[in-house]
Every structure is written in C-alpha cells, then in structure tokens.
C-alpha cells in the first residue's frame, strides 16, 4: 500500500507542476499535506512535520546557496568568470573543455558538499556556454556528474562517512575503492552521456552571466582563479591539515569552526568583495546591488528546495521509508545487491540520497555482518543506490532545473537519467571489485 500511495503522490506532483503549471513550492505543500493524511500522520502533527521539513532543509542549505549565489554573481559581473573561461579555453580548447570541467568537478567535489560545489561552479559553466556558444547541458553535465558521484560515494561526505563508521569500514580503503569506481561512473554518465544532449535547449539564469567586458577591464588571471576557487582551497586545507599534523584541542576547534561550509563561503565572499570589488574600483553600494540581485534570483529556488524538504519529512515521519525497507529484507539477494536495491527504492520514493543511504545502512547491517560482506564495498554499493533516479521529490533535481531553466521533461531526460546511470555503473563497479578483493 505504501508503494501505491507514494506513486500517487509523485504522479500528483508531476500533474500539478507539469500540467496545471502550479508553482512547485505550492505543489509541494499541497502534496505534503495529502501525503501526511494518506500515510496516517495525526492531524495535529501534520503542520509541525511540514514546517520541520522546510526548516531542516533550508537550515542546512539556505546560507550556502545564498552566499554561493552572491559569490557567483560577483565572479560573473567582475569579469573573473570571463577571464577563467578564456584561460581554460586557451589551455584545453573547445574540444577538451568538458573533460577539463569533469576533472575539476572530481577534484573540488571531494572536499565540497554538493550544494556548495554546484553554486560555485555553475556560473563558470554558464560563462563558458555563453561565450563560446556551447549548449549548457552538454557542457555542464560532466562536472555535475562528478559532484554527484563524490557526494554519494566518497568520504568525507556525510552519508558515506557515516556508513564507514557504522560498518566499521576503513576510510582510506573506501575512498580508494570509491575513486576507482567514480572515474568510469563520471566518464560514462557525464562525459559520454552528455554527448547525446546537444539538442536540449537551455537558457540558464542570466543573473550568473555578465555582459562581456573588454580585455583591459578584466581582473588578473591569478586574482580570478584564486577568488573563484578560494572556498575549495580553504576547505581542502582545513580538512587535510588536521589529518597531517597533531593539533591541540583549541586549534582543532578553530579548524572545525572555519571548515564549516557556511563560514568558508562567508570568508570567501568577504575576500571577493575586496579582490574583485573594492580593489577593482567598485564602490560598496554597487557591490551590495550585485548581492541583492543574486538574492532575488535564487529566492524561488530556495522555496522549491524547502518544499521538497516538507515532502521528505512527511514521508520520513510517517515511516514510509521503513515500510519500504522492511518489505525488501525478505528478498533472497546477494547482500551488496540488496543494499543497493534498498537504498535505490528509498531514494526514488523519499528523494534524499542521505536519508536513503543511512536508512538502507541500518537495515542491511545485520545481514552484512552475518555474511561477512566487505564493509568498504557495502558503503559504496549503498552510496550508488542512494543516487538512483533523482526526480521531482529531490532538491537536487530542482536546483539543476531552475538554474539551467529547463522544462521538467528535459530535466528528467538529462539529470535524472545521468543519476540513474551513476547508480547502475556504481553497482557494476562494486560487483566487479568484489570478485578481486
């Protein structure tokens, strides 16, 4: 019955948004209320569940998206993105620019949460797309595939890291196996698959693509790259230094504070305000106008993401994810395949990769121990399943759709299929590694 109800809810979302043209935020609220009623949440707790879902979702991502949008807008308007695009094209040429973006996504995706990497790198994708008249989806999907794979497969991202500790796996071995699987996953789902998407029409948000400036008005190459990549540099440094050196408690606490994505982005924005603003003869009033425009541009995106959080919370509070998982426990399948399947089905029904991964981990743990399944591979199997078929109940789906300004159909044809390919290629990689390790 739970499967049937969730299927109806997903269909209702598609009808409200795609056919009736209801704003996605309102559609999510309506479907969330309907879900709560159909799945048995007491009437006096429906509003609290919806509010908690919106609050939890926006609490974790609103600061990141807002600061990232401000930084991205300034990088675009100052000419830094134009400078970076020109340098990258000189080095790689149009023939290999997607490969360059894919590799960049893998590198920055390791220390960065998906949402942070997305809002930082999308302006660069758009600038290259507009300057060199390349299709935005065709150009950008390899990088986004890289960010998605690192989010689902690799520590120190939340879900794989939590599973490493839960399964008593080895962090280093899991990371090594994860990289081995991640490379073919992003090459096939990002670089190869996007080659079939040249005809998808996309008019990305103009807010992140500035009018082209004369060469003599552009900031320097070093300044442009340093400012745009400062959040990545800071996060990598603050993550690796505590691992490389013995630090006292006070220094560890300081590093922990500074390494929080919201603090990193705030530091980077302050730096950019001077490096691309004040030092480039822009007054504070003009800079604040740029930041204000960035907020206006992402307000609708924040509401949509918050709405998806409401539905996720209702499905979680109602026990729908546990019902689905309990049905699957009786299946007589190889543990790695079963872990992947449980995570994949929860992901499709609930929308959150993190919820899917951690829920599946709790369910598969006894079976994994009893069958002596490799815990490092189980982390990766569940991580791959947790990325399966992102669609209308996933905040990442809406982030991509709204930034790239796509129809639901074209979002499904590009983003959702890419995520599905990642899930299946990840599973194949795990099963192949299981033969040799």
TrEMBL record:
Keywords per UniProt: Cell membrane, Membrane, Transmembrane, Transmembrane helix, Transport
UniProt signal peptide: none
Transmembrane segments: 28-46, 58-76, 96-129, 136-154, 174-197, 225-245, 257-279, 337-365, 377-400, 412-436
Membrane topology per record: Multi-pass membrane protein
Pfam families: GntP_permease
Entry keyword Lyase: no
Family: Belongs to the GntP permease family.
PANTHER family documented for this protein: GNT FAMILY GLUCONATE TRANSPORTER, HIGH-AFFINITY GLUCONATE TRANSPORTER
Cited NCBIfam families: gntP (TIGR00791)
Name of protein: Gluconate transporter
């Amino acid at each position: 019955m739970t499967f049937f109800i969730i299927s109806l809810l997903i269909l209702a979302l598609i009808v409200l948004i795609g056919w009736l043209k209801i704003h996605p935020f309102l559609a999510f609220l309506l479907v969330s209320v309907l879900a709560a009623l159909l799945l048995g949440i007491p009437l006096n707790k429906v509003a609290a569940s919806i509010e908690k879902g919106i609050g939890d979702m926006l609490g974790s991502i609103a600061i990141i998206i807002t600061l990232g949008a401000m930084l991205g807008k300034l990088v675009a308007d100052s000419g830094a993105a134009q400078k970076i695009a020109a340098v990258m094209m000189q080095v790689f040429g149009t023939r290999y620019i997607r490969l360059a973006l894919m590799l960049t996504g893998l590198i920055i995706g390791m220390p960065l949460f998906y949402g942070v990497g997305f809002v930082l790198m999308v302006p660069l994708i758009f600038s290259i797309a507009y300057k060199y008249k390349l299709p935005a989806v065709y150009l950008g999907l390899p990088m986004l595939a890289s960010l998605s794979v690192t989010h689902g497969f690799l520590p120190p991202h939340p879900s794989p890291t939590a599973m490493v500790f839960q399964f008593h796996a080895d962090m280093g071995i899991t990371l090594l196996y994860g990289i081995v699987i991640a490379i073919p996953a992003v090459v096939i789902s990002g670089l190869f698959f996007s080659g079939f998407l040249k005809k998808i029409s996309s008019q990305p948000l103009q807010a992140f693509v500035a009018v082209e400036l004369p060469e003599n008005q552009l900031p320097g190459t070093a300044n442009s790259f340093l400012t745009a990549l400062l959040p990545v540099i800071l996060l990598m440094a603050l993550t690796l230094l505590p691992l490389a050196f013995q630090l006292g408690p006070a220094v560890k606490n300081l590093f922990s504070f500074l390494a929080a994505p919201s603090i990193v982005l705030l530091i980077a924005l302050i730096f950019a305000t001077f490096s691309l603003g004040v030092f480039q003869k822009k007054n504070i009033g003009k800079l604040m106008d740029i930041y204000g425009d960035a907020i206006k541009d992402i307000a609708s995106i924040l509401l949509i993401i918050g709405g998806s959080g409401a539905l996720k919370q209702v499905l979680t509070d109602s026990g729908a994810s546990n019902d689905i998982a309990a049905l699957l426990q009786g299946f007589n399948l190889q543990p790695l395949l079963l872990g992947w399947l449980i995570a994949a089905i929860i992901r499709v029904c609930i929308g959150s990769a993190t919820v899917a991964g951690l829920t599946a981990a709790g369910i598969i743990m006894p079976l994994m121990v009893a069958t002596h399944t490799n815990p490092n591979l189980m982390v990766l199997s569940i991580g791959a399943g947790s990325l399966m078929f992102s669609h209308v109940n996933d905040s990442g789906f809406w982030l991509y759709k709204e930034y790239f300004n796509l129809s639901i159909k074209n979002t499904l044809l590009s983003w959702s299929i890419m995520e599905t390919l990642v899930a299946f290629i990840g599973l194949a990689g795990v099963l192949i590694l299981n033969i040799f390790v």
